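Lecture notes, continued. The same structure-token format from the folding unit now serves as the input rather than the output. Read the line below as a description of shape only.
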């Protein structure tokens, strides 16, 4: 069976994108199952969010004329890629959703909100046009159904699995160097919905008990300058290290190895690969009770109330002051991570492909 796999987002996982990691995991998994894939991925420069959004729209306008679409048995489009394909002129299509732009919109403002609103419109069209919708969590499936007025039965929840990344293989090889102060690690793109500012606001609440505390933040993005300003206004710059995007695998593995606790206070994740990464290496997690976090983490981490620096600080304190708890929750995480396998994810896509094809035949 020939599949046209479409994404206008970046596909290089070294950029730190969860969508790119999913794309590579799906691509390699489908290839491993014997599918014949045509990859349609222009790999635009995504550092300019406004520019790349316009490029993505233009790319989609050209898709109906792409011979690889017409020659496929099934089309899989990530997020809204493929929204303009005429259902009567294309093969059966799966909308593989990740960002759920209609859900993201609540966190954005100004010009970025305008771009996201446009993408939410295309997202809705894609969901209505596709034979099957796939998504990584029940939370996100419910949001798609509610925001886009889509029949929930049309949506397949397929929890993510992932290919083995190089940095993950290096974590255990890194020596656990002793350090004389507690370290919290946060990893993620600096988008408003990730709520890194809530972590920054939790830092002053921990300093009386942990005066040498260090928070190390890996990632870059639209909120880089604002988060620096926030840390300065809070007077915690001496306790926060902004690492930027860490592209060196050994250096990234070292950050994870040295951290006592991993914290990701995001209020909107459709799955959250970073949770799976943290669990797979036995790192205790503090997140918030929002988005897909409760579904993915379950009892393998501590969940604070969202948008609440004091609640986040309390959960961080639980781990920082308790080595036994760190070990216990780390072990829980490793056990839970084993549930989210790459093979299970591809099994789900086998079923979705068969459903899309059979649905078109019945139609």
């Amino acid at each position: 069976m020939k599949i046209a796999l479409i994404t206008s987002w970046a596909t290089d996982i070294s950029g730190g994108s969860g969508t790119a990691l999913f794309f590579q995991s799906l691509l390699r998994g489908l290839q491993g199952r014997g599918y014949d894939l045509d990859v349609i991925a222009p790999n635009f420069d995504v550092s300019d969010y406004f520019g790349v959004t316009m490029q993505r729209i233009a790319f989609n306008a050209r898709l109906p004329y792409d011979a690889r679409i017409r020659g496929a048995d099934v089309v899989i489009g990530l997020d809204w890629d493929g929204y303009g394909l005429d259902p009567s002129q294309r093969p059966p299509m799966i909308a593989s959703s990740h960002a759920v732009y209609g859900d993201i919109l609540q966190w954005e403002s100004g010009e970025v909100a305008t771009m996201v609103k446009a993408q939410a419109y295309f997202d809705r069209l894609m969901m209505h046009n596709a034979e099957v919708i796939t998504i990584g969590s029940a939370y996100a499936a419910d949001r798609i159904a509610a925001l886009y007025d889509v029949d929930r039965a049309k949506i397949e929840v397929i929890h993510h699995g992932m290919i083995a990344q190089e940095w993950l293989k290096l974590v255990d090889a890194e020596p656990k160097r002793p350090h004389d102060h507690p370290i919290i690690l946060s990893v993620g793109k600096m988008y408003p919905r990730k709520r890194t500012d809530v972590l920054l606001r939790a830092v002053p609440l921990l300093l009386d008990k942990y005066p040498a505390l260090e928070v190390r933040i890996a990632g870059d993005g639209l909120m880089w300058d604002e988060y620096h300003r926030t840390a300065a206004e809070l007077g915690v710059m001496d306790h926060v290290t902004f690492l930027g995007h860490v592209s060196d695998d050994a250096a990234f593995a070292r950050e994870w190895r040295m951290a006592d606790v991993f914290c990701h206070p995001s209020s909107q994740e459709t799955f959250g690969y970073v949770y799976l990464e943290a669990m797979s290496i036995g790192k205790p997690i503090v997140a918030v009770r929002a988005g897909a976090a409760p579904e993915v983490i379950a009892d393998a981490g501590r969940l604070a109330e969202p948008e609440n620096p004091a609640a986040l600080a309390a959960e961080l304190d639980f781990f920082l002051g308790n080595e036994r708890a760190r070990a216990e929750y780390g072990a829980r995480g490793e056990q839970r991570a084993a549930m989210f396998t790459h093979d299970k994810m591809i099994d789900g896509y086998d079923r979705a492909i068969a459903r899309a094809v059979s649905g078109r035949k019945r139609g």
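Point for the exam: DSSP finds 15 helices and twelve strands in the chain.
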